[in-house]
Amino acid sequence: MEFGKFFRVIKKHKFTLVLVPIFAVIITYFLVHNQPDVYSSQAKLATGIVDQTQQHILSDALDLQDSKINQQFSNLIEMLKSKRMLDQLSYKLIIHDLTSDRPYRKPSTLLSQLNASAKQHALATYTDLYKKRHALSLFNRDQNGLHKLLESMKYDDQSILKTLLVYRVQNSDYINVQFDSEGAELSAVVVNTLCTEFVSYYTLLVKENQRKAVNFLGQLLQTKQDTLNAKMLALKQYKIKNHVLNLNEKAKSLYGQMSDFETRREEAERNAHATQSAINDIDKKFDPAARQYAESDKIADAQKVLSTRTQLQAVTDAYVQSNFDPRYKQKMDSLNGAISAQIGSLSDRYVLNPLSTKKDLVDQKLSLQVQNELAKNSNGSINKELNRLNTKFDALVPHEAATQALESAITIASQEYLEILQKYNQANMESNFSTQLRIIEIAEPGSAQPSKKMLLVIISGAVSFVFCIAVLFILFFFDNSINNASELADRTKIPVLGYLNLLRNKEIDLKTVWDNNKAAGETRHLRYLIQSLRYEIETEMGDNQVLLINSIEKEAGKSFVAINLAYAYASVNKKVLVIDGNFSDPGITRFTKTQYYLEDLLPGVLDKSFVTGDSMIRVIGNKGGGYSLLEIGGEQIVTEKIAALKTMFDVIIIEASALNTLNRSKEWVQFSDKIITVFEAGNSITDEYKQHIQYLKQQSNKFIGWVINLVRPENDEQHY
């Protein structure tokens, strides 16, 4: 439904949709038909970013992500289109035009006005800026003038960018540079100059960065080498100062000796315990008197044994302290043999007591006592040696910690040195290679491009047509006006009894409308609509007789509706009274030129001759002046007169003023049976309308619906 309305709007403005594109096409044609031909030239740059054939031996593997690759290409493209590059191009172009007899472009008005000295000054300034790669300062008055000179020749950066196209060729390693201008030679020169300047600048920039990197890494490498040498020297001096040769080997040797002495100490303790236990067992078997007898006979021999045993103990200590030197082992064996001989001699000279039978036990005890003493003495010597070895081992721990710290620092310094050395070698090697960016295709003067004049003309027509459609759609979308009965019913939720169509003729003869033989076309359609409205009103009124017709605003067509409705009732043989109750604008009174007025009727006596005659329609007008009904006659008088008129007429139609006249319209409501409100098509429901609509809804027992007037043919829901 909404699309149908929109198509009707388009149909209404069909001439606009045709004329506007035609005018746009004509204007575009005159604007573009004198434009010069366009020549295009392009060059191609190889970057070496994704082309493996351009990678040298130190280049990283081609494992870059697409985002990283795209970023590198974007950086190159933006650098090529930067103001620094375009300024260099601008200087080259203007220098050529100032020094050549064949300039690329026709001299502008500003350039033609320069004298010889001014041109010489401009040439010197441009040349100096080109060599120094500096931009013009717009804050400087002289250089600002030179910039305006570039603008006049369209050699400035903004003018060049308008037709300069720089892009990556799909996913390849190449960048295309394209420029369009009115001259074939100019297009080729711009592209080649820009590419040459860019490659030169990029090469200079890369080499300068590589030189700085090599210098920085060289200085850093020297610093790391000095640090490494200092740490190695500190370790060397520490070992010399503390007599440290090889801590690991020395610690292993001490640990082995300590383990050997631990084993010997355990063996000596075991022998001491064993021999002491055996001696204690033998002592339990001797009688005290017999032991005294036997020992007194062998005192001299026992003293020899003790002397030899003392010598054996000294040799044993020397043997342990010498880390078990074999030379001391022979002496120990010799002393052990001497002790054994002395003990044997002591046994041979033993004088037995007749009461004693334990000769063998005495000899065994003496031998065990010698072994016990040897075990105890060797245990003491071993403990002393173990204490000495532990002391030496403990002294190694601080040296080990210090040397480990120094060696760890040397390891880290050496690692850092090797990493910096690798980077330095790589940077130094890369600085000797040429840059990968180069021109592989130079631009050549091309032929004129196909003319786009006709395309621009067609586009202008199409764009203007679409623009008109868009404007009409926006107007339609934001249009809140009500144009037919269905829209009015939807917006107000109040029934619409009927509508009246808009007539093309401003003047209308009611006799023509209601003459069956003469009415035709839209006039005949109007009569059908009024007859339909009369039927709907008659159905709603039932036995009621007084119908009030009002509107929300003035000039909605109340008078037209009231008079035509009176003719419609008269056509069905009903006697109709039309009362012009609009004291603000008595249109019916002026139209009918009646001789009867409310100002005379209400205060006076009703003249019954008023209703005599053959006419089925009678009209009571008013003299205007802005009065209200109750100001002319009281409520009781008006009620009585309305009641009297009901007996004389079948239908009484009252036209009241608009609701925005407040009481002058609302005073008629209390004297009417039913109310219809005329709404002019094309109006919108504003906040003021909503207040009056709410008032009408409150009159639900009297208000029966709308009548929409002046409906345009395109919004007419019926056909004739």
TrEMBL record:
Keyword list, A-Z: Cell membrane, Coiled coil, Membrane, Transmembrane, Transmembrane helix
SUPFAM superfamilies in the record: P-loop containing nucleoside triphosphate hydrolases (SSF52540)
Pfam families: CbiA (PF01656), Wzz (PF02706)
Subcellular location: Cell membrane
UniProt topology in membrane: Multi-pass membrane protein
Residue ranges of domain Polysaccharide chain length determinant N-terminal in the record: 3-93
Residues in coiled coil: 251-285
Superkingdom as given in the UniProt entry: Bacteria
Record-annotated membrane-spanning stretches: 15-32, 454-478
Residues covered by the CobQ/CobB/MinD/ParA nucleotide binding domain: 552-718
InterPro entries registered for this protein in UniProt: Bact_polysacc_biosynth/exp (IPR050445), CobQ/CobB/MinD/ParA_Nub-bd_dom (IPR002586), LPS_length_determ_N (IPR003856), P-loop_NTPase (IPR027417)
Keyword Cell inner membrane: no
Protein name, per record: Lipopolysaccharide biosynthesis protein
